[in-house]
Every structure is written in C-alpha cells, then in structure tokens.
Amino acid sequence: MLCSTCRIRPPVTDDGRCLLCAGPAGAASPMPPPPAFIAPQQYLRSPEGLAKAVVVLLAVVAAADLLAVAAGLNTRRVIAAGVENDFAAYDEAEATLADNLYGSAGALQSLASLATAVVFIIWFRRVRLNAEVFDPSTQPMRPGWAVGAWFVPIANLVLPRRIAGGIWNASAQTNTDGSWRTVPATVMNLWWGFWVVSLITSQYAARRYWAAEQPQEILDTAGLVVATDAFDIVAAVFAVLFVRKLTRMQGERAALGMFPLAAQGAPGRDAWGRAH
After folding, report:
1. Cα dist. 259→27, 84, 103, 268 in Å?
2. What is the pLDDT of residues 83-125, one digit of tens each?
3. Do residues 142 and 162 lie in contact, with contact meaning Cβ atoms separated by under 8 Å?
4. Helix 92-134 and helix 215-256, axial crossing angle in degrees, nearest 10
5. Of 73, 76, 65, 78, whose CA–CA distance to 106 is shortest?
6. How far apart are CA 254 and CA 196, in angstroms?
7. What's the DSSP call for residue 180?
8. Count of C-beta atoms within a 10 Å radius of residue 86
9. What is the three-class DSSP state of 273?
10. pLDDT tens per residue across span 17-26
C-alpha cells in the first residue's frame, strides 16, 4: 500500500499519508500528487513473447517426459523378463542399452525442466510487474517475491500460488460500468495442483528408484517413476493453458486503458513498453 497523496512512499499516518506528505505540525502543505501512472514499474511491458517461449519449452518438457515414459517402460520390460526366468536368459547388452536410454531421457528431462523454469520465472515476474500497474492493491506480496518465492523450501509450495492469485485478480477485465469482474481461476488452480503433486511424487519416486537394490524393488519403482513422468505431462499441459490464459487476460486488461493511477485515456495495449 502506498501513500494516499504521493503514491510513492508507504503510509505512516492514520489518514494514509507518508512521513514526508504528512509533515510536522505547521509545515507547508503536502506535496502535490505526482503525474498519473506511477508504480514500481511505470509502464506495461508485453509478456507475449516470453509466454510463447514458455509454451514452446513446456512442449519440450512434455516431449522429454514422453520419451522418459517410453524408456522407463522398456527398462521395466527388460527387468521383468529377467525376474520371470530368474535371470537365466538375461541379456546384459540389452539391459545396458535400456539403462543408457533411460539415463539419457532423464538428462533431457532435467535440461528441459531447468530451461523452462528460468524462462517461466522471467515471464512470471513480467506479469507480476504488469499487475502492479493494473492494481497494486490486489497484490499480497512485493514484486521481488515473484522470483524469490520459488526458492524458499516448503514455502514454494504455497507462495507462488498466492502471488499468482493477485496477478490473476489484477489482470481481470472490468465490467462496462467500471466494476471488477471475477474470472474463474479453474485453470490456475489445476496448473498449481498438478504441479505441486508432480513435484512431490517425482521426488519420492526418484529417491525410491535410486534406493532400490533387489530386482523386484527396481521393477516396482520403475513403474512408479513412469507414472510420475506421465503425470508431469498433464501438469505441463495445464501450465500451458495457465500461461496462455493469463497472458491473454493481461492483453485484454491493457486494452481497456484504465488503471488505478491513470485518468481516462491512459495508454492501453498499443502502448506496451519494450519487451526486454
């Protein structure tokens, strides 16, 4: 929340003014409000280019997951064949090839996920800063948390969703009479739910897989890892839907040209700032 007069500093008085605007008793009148459209980010910046990059990378993640599912099923088939005949006719070369393919698929998953995470967080920060321009009063946390929240253990299962909710509300279009219009957050909730479950189950499955020693244990945990990879594909699909929906909402919101600190006729979508 900002000073009701200057809209720059935090308020310290009961009437919502900052220390400078309130001033000591008998001081000069408070400074006049600054020009409209003042916020931590003073103009809108298009998230569309970043959104396209995130969507492409999420598609790569889904493809890597699909490859990992195929490699995992192949590894499970080889192990199951060995367990069935007590490894009497176990093909070492085939087993080595299956293991190498599975390892390569896992490495591809890691690289794709890392690249996607970096670009996604950059996009997330961009839409968060735009939300600060649209309506800072709906934001539960400071803009810097759009990046930092992802790196706080345990809290990163909750905080990013909280921030996303504030962005979602600020990015909703208004009704024709200027009142706020609620946009169902189903897509956002599905994205977050699937992502959290995928993150937790994949960590659990990976630990069990690497801890397995007996053939039957490896066989069982390989099936669990395959299931989590398939679940991650669904999470990636909902992430794509969320990114596209929120990006579209911000474009529609910007086209209205009405922001909390702007007068009628303020710059709309045609005045997107540079996308850097």
Report:
1. 32, 68, 51, 9
2. 777 776 667 888 889 889 999 999 999 999 999 999 999 999 9
3. no
4. 20
5. 65
6. 31
7. B
8. 9
9. strand
10. 776 667 654 4
pLDDT band at 57 (very low <50, low <70, confident <90, very high): very high
Q: How far is CA 92 from CA 44, 78, 215, 230, in A?
A: 59, 10, 14, 28
Half-sphere exposure of 179 (CA within 13 A, CB side): 3
Residue 92: left if φ>0, alpha if ψ -120 to 50, beta else—which one?
alpha
Listed by start position, the domains of the chain span: 49-252
pLDDT at 274: 42
DSSP structure class, residue 183: -
Q: Cα–Cα distance between 50 and 137 in angstroms, integer? A: 25
Residues 8 and 2: beta-carbon distance below 8 Å: yes
**What distance in Å separates the CA atoms of residue 273 and residue 89, rounded to the nearest whole number?**
66
**3 vs 21: CA distance, rounded Å:** 8
Amino acid at 87: F
DSSP 218: H
Residue 164: exposed, middle, or buried by beta-carbon count in 10 A (0-12, 13-18, 19+)?
A: buried
**pLDDT value at residue 83:** 77
Lowest mean pLDDT among 26-40, 113-127, 152-166: 26-40
pLDDT band at residue 65 under the 50/70/90 scheme: very high
CA distance 258 to 21: 26
